[in-house]
Amino acid sequence: MTTPHIIREFDEAMDRLRDQVLGMAGQTQLNLERAMDALLTRNIDLSKVVIADDNDVDELEREIDSLGMDVLLRFHPVASDLRVVITSMKVSSNLERISDHAVNIAKRAKKMSKRAELPETQWLEPVYTLALQGLRRSMQAYTDRNSELGLSLDTQDKELDRIHKKVIANLSALLEEGGERSEDFLHLIFVARSLERIGDLAVNIGEDAVFLDLARDVRHEKNREDILSPDTQEPGEDAS
Amino acid sequence: MPRKDFIAIDNFSFSYGAAKVLHGINMDIPEKQVTALIGPSGCGKSTLLRNMNRMNDLIEGVQHEGDIRLDGKSLYDPNVEVISLRKRVGMVFQKYNPFAKTIYENVVFSLRVAGRNKRSELDDVVERTLRSAALWDEVKDRLHTSAFGLSGGQQQRLCIARAIANQPEILLMDEPCAALDPTATLRIEDLIRDLKEQFTIVIVTHNMEQASRCSDLTAFLYMGELVEYDRTLKVFETPKEERTEAYISGRFS
């Protein structure tokens, strides 16, 4: 909504909240990109940067929660303003978990970089591509209040799950064969698992974007095809 | 089964002389629910409320079109006696206004006016009514002292007791907490939630949090028009009209 609030401080607080979430999303995405770059290029220094930068993401999560509480307490927002506050706090929680997964990847990258190069690491690239795309699209859906894009993340995540399963099956087969690289295969399985979880968390953010746009809670809904149909949007009970 | 159109407002317009302040209002107010009327000053919400017991009849030069029906019968039917109507529709005002009498006499005032003076009946009414108004425990030992000795919040609850002593069907409240502190306000809100078991309540309020806390339905009026009327949660979570969202969000110029 572009009409300014009667209390200027409210608009300033809401702007600050949005900026903090976008800043946190940027840092989280950077952490993920750097973690995977560290893994794929065997860059120990980059792994260390990701591990250190996670503190910034944690701090941003705390700031967003504090700012959200402050807005709720002082201004009692309603309707779409209330959804902005609630959604921002939920998105920041999902971003923090994504950043934690980036740190897990970076830690494994650091360990693997000390050992001989493993060609199978490249198998994770398609999983990573989809996870990163999910994160970007989910934040786009949140920023633009685009429920259509928010809902589409679930479909995309199914493709990520499919590739993830295939990669896990192949890595598990190698792991069962045993040998001196077993520990590295195990690292890759956990990295793949983190990427798959990042996809799930992006779906959560997409659902938050739908709530922001339509005030509709689509979590755990199986049939999402009809959600955007005007007949099924947020059934408001008639007053009379 | 509570009636959904207990108060049926049908294409109702109202003017003070040449100034038309309500424009074709249509809304059905359900029985034994709390309905809040919200909107900026001058939007017509108090005028609409006061028409529900024809209080505006007292003002010279007023005119109306359309109808308001109470339980299916027009308030403007020539056979309706305003005195009888007001027995069915109690009213509580913004500024608590107990009479310069004892607490007891304030409660039984309308009964005495109606010629009901039997002591045992009056005693029963006083206890029952003050209990309903959540005031009995605080005043039972000083019923025959002046009402002015009560705190502001207690005086307002006494006015509510006075309004419901005659067992009206409807309770109209015009900003009943505007002159009260936060604690007294919350007590009245709590009382409103209890009273809806017995009465149909219509409340005018400028306090958005109060409307969202204690009403089942909310109507937003603007410049004499009914902009939106729906379940309160719906109005405050996902209003249909942009003007409603702008008003409740504080973005109204």
CATH fold topology of chain B: Rossmann fold
Distance between the termini of chain A: 29 Å
What is the global morphology of chain B?
A: globular
Q: Specify Rg of chain B, calculated over alpha carbons.
A: 18 Å
Give a description of the structure.
Chain A is an all-alpha fold and 240 residues long. Chain A has one domain (8-220): Methane Monooxygenase Hydroxylase, Chain G, domain 1, CATH 1.20.58.220. Chain A has 6 helices and no strands. In chain A, helix 1 (8-41) packs antiparallel against helix 4. The longest helix of chain A is centred in the middle third of the chain and has 35 residues, at 79-113. Chain A starts with 7 loop residues before the first helix and ends in a 26-residue tail after the last helix. Chain B is an alpha/beta fold and 253 residues long. Chain B has a single domain (7-249), classed as P-loop containing nucleotide triphosphate hydrolases (Rossmann fold, 3-Layer(aba) Sandwich). Chain B has 10 helices and 10 strands. In chain B, the strands form 2 sheets. Chain B has a 6-stranded mixed β-sheet, with helices on both faces. In chain B, strands 2-1-4-5 form a 4-stranded antiparallel β-sheet, covered by helices on one side. In chain B, strand 9 and strand 10 form a beta hairpin. In chain B, helix 3 (103-113) crosses helix 4 (119-132) and helix 6 (152-164) runs parallel beside helix 7. The mean pLDDT of chain B is 94. The chains are: A mainly alpha (240), B alpha/beta (253). Chain A binds chain B through residues 1, 3-7, 10, 75-82, 215, 234, 236-240, and chain B through 4-5, 27-28, 30, 208-209, 212, 217, 219, 229-231, 234, 236-240, 245-246, 248-253.
